[in-house]
Structure formats: C-alpha cells, structure tokens
Amino acid sequence: MGKVNDAGYPLHSTQFSVAALLKQSEQWKDSMLGAFCFSAEAVKNQIQAAGNVPCMHVAMQRLDADDSVCEVWHGRGQLTRGQSGAIHYCYDEGALLGVIELPEALSADIDKTPLQQATESAYRQIFALLERLRYPYLFRCWNYIADINAHSFGLERYRQFNLGRQDAFLAYGRDVTGNVPAACAMGFGQAGLVQGALPTLHIAFLAGRAAPQNIENPRQISAYQYPQEYGPRSPTFSRASLACMGQDKVLFISGTASIVGHATLHPGNVVAQTRETIANIKAVLDEANRQRCLASQPKLDLASLYYTVYVRHPADLAQIRTELARCAGDALTAVYLQADMCREDLLLEIEATAVYPQMHMPAQRV
Ligand code: 3EB
Are the CB atoms for 115 and 161 separated by under 8 Å? Predict the structure, then answer.
C-alpha cells in the first residue's frame, strides 16, 4: 500500500479501518505522523487517545464498505509530537502533519461570521506553528465543513470559509495566488452532531522544509482566479502540489470536479461529470509528469494513484465506480465517501495522491 520508508512501513496508506489500525504493532503506530478517519458515527477519537497521534475524525459515511476508513501517513526516523493551541502535530525531519478541529463559536467580532472566524483562526494558528517550528511550506490542506452549501448571514458557508482562509494567508504575508497549497474543501451533514452542539470545522495539513512545486490545470482557470460570481474571495488552493517528504516525492492532486474554465459542466449527469473529472485529473497528472524534477522518474498514470472519491448521492456510487474503473483500470485503489461538494451542482469530486519511487541517491560532494 504505497512507498515503503526506512522503518519498513508505507509513507502513505489508505485502507485501514479504525479497528484495523488500532490492532497494528506499537512500532507501526509509533511511526505514524497522523491519520484522517472517516465514519458515519462521530466515534470517540481512540487513535489520538492511544498515544497522542494527530488524528482527524470526520463524520462521513464510507460507501464502498460498511466500515470506517483511515488515511495514514508515516514518518521516518525520530518523530516529535505536540500540541499548540488547538493543533495536534507530529513531525520528522522533513515533514510536519497537523490536525485542528475548531467549533464555530460566536464571538464579539460581528463583522465576521462564526465559520469565517473559525477558519481564519485555524489558519492563523497553522501559520504561526509552521513559522515557529520552521516548516514554512504548506503542501496540502484537507478542509471539512459542516453544511457547506447552507446559506447564513447572506452568504453560502463555503464562501464564508473562503473569506476566513484568504484573510489568514494575507495576515501572515503568504501568497494567495501561485504558491498556494493543494487542498480539498468538502461538506459533511449534521447527522453525527449532538443536538445543540456547535458545528466543528476540521482541517488537516502537511507541511515541509523544501518548497513544493505547484501545478495548475490547463483545462481550468486557477481557482485563485475564479471570478466574483463564485464568492467575494477566491479559494486559496492550487490544482496539485509536488513535494519532497524526506527522500520521497509526493504528488497531491487537489479535490477535482467537473469544472472546465470556471464553469460546472454536465449538471445532473453523474456519468458525464465523472468522465470530465477524470479528464481533469489526467490533465493535472500530465502537467506533473512534465515537471523537470521528475525527468528521470518513471511517469505516473491514472492506475498508480490513490483516490478518494466524494459522492453527493449514495445512489450514484455504482455509476461513478464503473466509470472510474473504465478510465483508470479495475485494479485502482479508491475509497468512496458520502460528502457534499462546494458547488450545489457538483455530484462528485475526486482527489488523488501518489508517492513516486525514489530513483537516485543524492550526488556525492567531492
Ligand atoms: C473546484 O475545482 C472544486 O476550496 O480548497 C476543490 C479543491 C474545490 C479545493 C478548496 C475547492 C477547494 O473549485 C472545489
């Protein structure tokens, strides 16, 4: 399940249930940078409790199996874990993984919505931590937002999230175009929420010490240049990032949907949306394979990626699965989750990750 690191474990693996993960050896668990877990019930965070490992839990139902699923990242060598404000983090010498979960509390700042404030606060905490621990480059962010398509305070919640995110980037002097992380921003329902509790924003991130290469999709306008019709602030993400994590090169393909230019294509047609989404992933992959730093690497194809497929309507699962297998082969690795996309007319979104095999030892200094 992925590239094996020097501890003998894969850097990245995707198909562990919470129960299977908890049954792994102590050594295996000790080498975890962190885990992102998805299950319908808001289970107690057993993994984090079992050793202070950063663990995000999102209340999303897995559609391809009656089980939970975790995406696990492993580090190399000495790992350090800690907590800073609401962030749980773990780092090795090349990469830092963090998780932050914030309730959307009302505060005194009446100019900002609770979600906008939670988002801005989360990203401010992230940037402060990355500066302090000197992992300045944000590779990839996973954003999970309750009721993402709901409207409140006169603005769709995803657009409120975009306001808070961009403000935090600007406050820390970060680029909001070009050098921005790969990301996804998905919605989950309120089913797992205890009545009366505040909705919680979940963000996980991977950062490092070497600048990643940011990759855009020639079929799409960069999201950070979307026109105003999609909200007062553009989303702050790139279509993919190619990062060095220790000796490994990792490609993070952002959440990708049936969008060409800036417009949604094929509203209401889940098969056509699936095909268009895969065409977009293929275009991003072609761009990645052309990067100079990968010149001597074997090229990646659609069959070699790890996919997470977010499906709005569970009844669409079979059609999406068939189409993805037709385009990427039967042997692909994919996990299917029920989620809402950030535009109401999108029926699915697919993200993908790949770890390139390491081909060369670094040049010896004479
Ligand atoms: C899109 O292409 C679909 O706001 O971080 C995909 C990936 C999407 C990331 C984000 C949004 C985000 O615009 C939506």
Answer: yes
| Residue 77, number of CB atoms within 10 A of its CB | 12
User: Ligand 1 pocket check: which of 237, 241, 278, 284 to mutate, most ligand atoms within 8 Å of Cβ?
Assistant: 237
Give 221-260 as a 3 state SS string: CCHHHCCHHHCCCCCCCECEEEEEECCEEEEEEEEECCEE
Each residue of 153-162: pLDDT tens digit? Answer: 999 999 999 9
For residue 224, the CA-to-ligand 1 centroid distance in Å is 10
Instruction: Please give the residue that has the higher pLDDT: either 200 or 195.
Output: 200
Q: Mutation test of ligand 1: which of 340, 342, 346 has the most ligand atoms closer than 8 Å to its C-beta?
A: 342
What percent of the chain clears pLDDT 90, i.e. is strictly above it? Answer: 80
**26 a catalytic residue:** no
Which amino acid type is present at position 287? E
From 247, 238, 236, 246, select the one nearest 213 (Cα to Cα).
Answer: 238
Half-sphere exposure of 342 (CA within 13 A, CB side): 24
Q: Which pair of tokens denotes residue 213? A: 């290469």
Helices (H) then strands (E): counts for the chain: 7, 20
pTM, rounded to two decimals: 0.95
